[in-house]
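Researcher: Quick one. two chains, 876 residues in total.
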Amino acid sequence: MTFREDGAAALEWVASYLERVRELPVLAQVEPGELRGRLPAAPPEQAEPFADVLRDLDEVLLPAVTHWQSPRFFAYFANTGSEPGILADLLVAGLNQVGILWRTSPALQEVEEVALDWLAQLLGLPAGLHGHLEDTASTATMAALAAARAARPDARIVVATEHTHSSVAKACRLLELELRLAPVDETFALRPEPLDLDGACAVVGTVGTTSTGSVDPIPALAEACARESVWLHVDAAYAGSAAVCPELRGHFAGWERADSVVVNAHKWLLTPMGCSALWTRRPDDLRRAFSLVPEYLRVSEDVPSLSEFSPALGRRFRALTLWTVLRCYGRQGLQAQIREAIRLAALFEELVRAEPGWEVVAPRHFSLVCFRRDDSDAENEALLERVNASGEAFLSHTRLEGRYALRLAVGNARTTEDDVRAAWEVLRREAGRAPAPA
Amino acid sequence: MTFREDGAAALEWVASYLERVRELPVLAQVEPGELRGRLPAAPPEQAEPFADVLRDLDEVLLPAVTHWQSPRFFAYFANTGSEPGILADLLVAGLNQVGILWRTSPALQEVEEVALDWLAQLLGLPAGLHGHLEDTASTATMAALAAARAARPDARIVVATEHTHSSVAKACRLLELELRLAPVDETFALRPEPLDLDGACAVVGTVGTTSTGSVDPIPALAEACARESVWLHVDAAYAGSAAVCPELRGHFAGWERADSVVVNAHKWLLTPMGCSALWTRRPDDLRRAFSLVPEYLRVSEDVPSLSEFSPALGRRFRALTLWTVLRCYGRQGLQAQIREAIRLAALFEELVRAEPGWEVVAPRHFSLVCFRRDDSDAENEALLERVNASGEAFLSHTRLEGRYALRLAVGNARTTEDDVRAAWEVLRREAGRAPAPA
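Model:
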């Protein structure tokens, strides 16, 4: 029985990884194809020991890993695979549940229902919503828009802004819907007057856009959508977790009127990758879009399975992980990590504002700061490349009103004030360094 | 630092679970809502210890678990979360990689490419295919059909049979394609002459259908599709893993000409849930359907990310699990478990054939046996319910030419000859028992 021994080694590997991850270069320092070239071109004929996998993980794979678990990861939306979340994923794999019908795993289905109820309560969403999990917000948003299309087959337009996440455009392509862009104001939020809903089946309003964290005017959108019987989908994939803090609920005003809401627990809610929560107050429309029960899945109990509301038939027991995280942090623990991330982002914003030659280029609502050097786009881009190449911090970028902007997103629960100050020092240092000749 | 202690307890829980799972009732013996009623209605305010989660897993959740890990699980397509697969999932959660762009995890992308290459080699698929992983075959098939639609925007029909998996109908609804059913022969395989491809953008041929394991005539379909420039998608979600055995390759003749092929590693290839392999020889069509790179994802390196070929933007590091499984079993280990499952299914088939009053109702190609008592549909249905209620084995059913049929699918790697004989004894015992009065 080597499972216990191999398991102890795997567990120790993870424990030690989490202890040393701060010291590793955040952005992988390899060239495309470099890892591939170091791996055998053919699979082994005979079984290899699990210990060899662990060895290669250290020696071969790790240099090609970009460390999302690093407290100095500030790119995209930083996230955290928390300790309870990691261990719950071990249990999930051990149980290997496959949710197809209720009977194939009552625990999976009912824990998913309970975890989504709990999370709705934590975020201040209304009671009675139908909730389930998808792997990513891309899938959740696509499912919501498919339901919107099913509810209004005559209307083929989705209204959003240029700051709406690209997954909406991707879903529109898949669903053959037209994406109509509404204008934004100076805070990069949708400008609701006038809002053209002619021919629209859905509006996507975002609380916490990817580029800047901007907040669309959800109350006005909810009002207009209700008037015109248009589906309102609220994309709060990143920022939604912040609603666990009552003092931040103002940003979410109106989302209780949405037809669907998506929040990625795997972003800012301590859950490992693959856990996106979708709620709807119109489950019948989701079911109309996705329910299909062939003979081999007909059973005696009359319980709709979650797969009837979802694009895929089978589902992992990811709810066990979410449920574990909610229990092992509790409301107060979840609030504490959101507040700390926002405090650190505010601190970073202050550092930028206080320094001549730098500017903050978008309002900060949550834990994302958009900023730049008072310099050319090319210089800013080169600066970002130098910072990321240093391995000391990893940031990303966007473009606002045509200008290049740097993004620092706090969101890893292990990030400390020292980490944020260190990132700022790397930025200042690299800004003061002449770029290498081309 | 409680991670090591909690982790040791979680690991021991899984080890002990795998040791005792054979003794647990295979099908959960609870009523709908029973588990939900035992869980708190509201989330905790304060953090709870991880040990409480483990305690509740045993005391509250386990009775509501249907044990897919049980060697006496014979329903649907039985599967296995193998020991290396489980431990790899622990590493995946610990690393918490998010594949968005190549740079967000070169290891994820390149290990995925390598693992798909390896698996293609193991299964005898041609070199040079583009491969990636989706969570389920539902998603993979939908992606393939979206590519087929993008390649032939004028053609809106998908040709398949009544035995094609329901995910094809679901994908057609999402993609607004029409599903045209072709007739089947007496083996439940598509009858290729005449094949009406007028207006078709795709044909789905199945190697190993869900109801009976039947095999559509892929060479004839490939020929017709090539002639008419129609996309051929081969659904080998269940049976594809069997192609690791050269003596079974005959069933897969022609799939090397398919435009896309799907094989679920999480079914018969020892990988925990959420690992469906999709290969295509037309990656440009997939990319046309799904590629979309917004500004905040533009980077200097010119490497297409896997998300450009896939409905979702972000992906888990599920390739690490597949790669680990392929290494820890090797070609010979994978072959051995396929051969043993087929040997056991053949044994079961013999037992049924040898017993008066029972009949095998479909040809057996792989590890699935379709059979019934020579009795009414209602009696067969009641028999299945009694067997499943016993907890001693779990089987499922289908309907063939209007008649109810029982399905026994061997596929759990821990299943032994004793387990198969035990299932047969339960069936015989329950068949001899008068049904309880209604």
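Chain A touches chain B through 136 residues (CB under 8 Å).
Researcher: Thanks, that's what I needed.
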